[in-house]
Amino acid sequence: MITLHALKYSRATRVLWLLADLGQPCNRVDYDRTDSFRAPDALKQVHPLGKSPVIEDDGEMVAESATILRYLAAKYGDDSHTPPQDTAAYWQHEAVLDYVEASFAEVALQAILPAFDGKPVPDKARAALNQHLDFIIQLIGDGPLLFGERAMLADIQMSYIIALLAQLDLLGGHPAIATYWDVLQEQPGYIAAIEAAGPMAPSV
User: Fold this and answer.
1) Predicted TM-score of the model (pTM)
2) Hey, how many other C-beta atoms are within 10 angstroms of the C-beta on 76?
3) Degrees (nearest 5) of the Cα angle 66, 19, 11?
4) Which of 15, 82, 172, 179 is surrounded by the most beta carbons within 10 Å?
């Protein structure tokens, strides 16, 4: 059975979501955040950088959310969370799956971190965030999700950053993203993950 090392209010919820969709159990090891909202030192016993999520499977350790999602889809022979591999949409999906942490997360955090501390978001950070939110609206298109009616790995990956932005009221001026977030929260795997481990984003 997969062991999931899950930090509270973290990207680990993405992994729980996919496992719920796949009907697969896991041995979940939970870690509370410190008073400064950081990961505890105990996670460094699992991964040298103290990362979460991390999964263990038959002695193998796998980190990074996108890699874990791909790993689990491959392990369980799942092809329902990606477009068909012989289509252009498949590679578009792969690009979006990587875009979330490679590009979007860094920009979003420039707005999230000051807002989380109760400080004004710098104009430059807000402008950069708005540019990316406009780009995501283009990706959604007719929606309701990134690639139509069914949640893909890219949607699961996107959910954590969108959850933080929504919790901090940083989606203003982008009602299409707010609607997208509403649809994400209706997904059975999301609901199961939240019921199992609590909300993605903390109350502020």
Assistant:
1) 0.96
2) 14
3) 45
4) 15
